[in-house]
Amino acid sequence: MIKYQYFSMLYLYNSLSRKKEIFKPVKDKRVRMYTCGPTVYAYAHLGNLRTYLAEDLLKRALIFNGYQVKQVMNITDVGHLVSDADSGEDKIELAAKKEKKTSFEIADFYTEYFFSALKKLNIIFPEITAKATDHIKDYINYIKLLEEKGFTYFTSDGIYFDTSKLKDYGKLTGQSFKDLSKNLKAGARIEFSSEKKNITDFALWKFSPQNVKREMEWDSPWGKGFPGWHIECAVISLKYLGNCFQNGKFYPEKFETIDIHCGGIDHIPIHHTNEIAEVESLTKKPMARFWFHVNFLVLKETRMGKSEGNALLIEDIEKNTFSPLAFRYLSLTTHYRMPLEFSFESLKGAENSLREIYNFIENCLWEKKFLKNKQNKAFSLKKYSKDFEEAINNDLNTPQALSVLWNLISRYNKVKKDQKKISQLSPSAVYQLLLSFDKVLGLDFKKIKLPKIKKEVQSMVKERENLRKQKKWQAADNYREKIKEKGYLVEDTIFGPRVTKINE
Known about the structure:
Elements: E1 11-14, E2 19-22, E3 30-35, H1 46-64, E4 68-75, H2 91-99, H3 103-120, E5 128-131, H4 136-148, E6 152-155, E7 158-161, H5 177-187, E8 202-207, E9 225-227, H6 229-241, E10 245-246, E11 249-250, E12 258-264, H7 268-283, E13 288-294, E14 297-299, E15 302-303, H8 314-319, H9 324-332, E16 340-341, H10 344-367, H11 382-393, H12 398-416, H13 427-441, H14 455-469, H15 473-485, E17 488-493, E18 496-501
Parallel strand pairs: 3-4, 3-12, 4-5, 12-13, 14-16
Antiparallel strand pairs: 1-2, 6-7, 7-8, 8-9, 10-11, 14-15, 17-18
């Protein structure tokens, strides 16, 4: 396999600094990466999956650059309430009532669905997947530490974090504590309880409502209840990536800053801001060096979401005869920090483009039987390799990376028409280069194989060639039609007859 190694540095946009920076992990070539996982109360829709596709792209780009990646993803199966004001019902329990199932059945069902969707999109699974309900003791122990340091207070419905204790609370949003509080009041996303000291304060532990039996509730030093949403991600990331969890206890002073924390842009003002508060209040160190956020999938300028009532699923595109990988390709056509506008027309264009790439790969596999050069002497592949790497290393510029791929295909096809240069082509080398591109793109180029031709059809193709040599054109055309009836097409090329399956 031919390799072209370059040492261009990877630049990523850091939401914390609001600029592109050279990516360097805390330790050598090992990257610790946390991705906020799904709240498993409903089907993961295409808008959700756009975020996970971008995070998969990031992971693949890191591996492409020689890093070892340890990715941790949580599964929120408790604690995510309907309102951002820490009020309303738990989304899992609410779904359980509607579907007349237990909360655990709901969580298990939609978790399984989520991972089946990831598989269809060729997304690399995390090294560690952590269910929120498996870490109740860890949350309680960490909240105790926050309590000891004076960051908590009681209300009638739970234990809250006092955000006024942190001078830089809200830094991920680029706003001061005062401005953030003012904007939250104006934005009406957060209701202000009279028991809250500050509108930005949030629940660490919620008490079970009186005279109401919850399925998901646990005993704690403060009363029976359940964890807040934000504490789950904070504690899980600390436990598995922060290197400060030993013998069942947290040692915040030993915390090592995580390399990358990922999520959607909607997590910036509340969820990720509150995670930072929970972690940095005790560790006194940055929670993560890089904050990686993905923009929305939109339908005619409206974000796709469950609350908007316009959520489309993987099954919706499959019902319209589209491949899930066509959606992956469509996602690559827009930079992850820009809104991605979805339509079935754009998906059709992505499907056609992907099919054209697959056809080109199949051509390479067929042509390498006739052009057996190890090196591509017709033109240099190094430029395309370098251009692709530079596009990816420029904050995952996939539109530019796809442009490099298409330029390579165009150049190859142009040279193939030149009788003087065609012998200098190396389909094998081009194919290997495309496979290296696909380590990042994740479009599953390896699955493309030459079709197996039935012996009966092979015999018919040979007979047709004999007729063509005898210039019996009508009889040869009749054989072409008979071959087509068998489900195959015959194309006459400079290398001889090419047989392909119909509709593949």
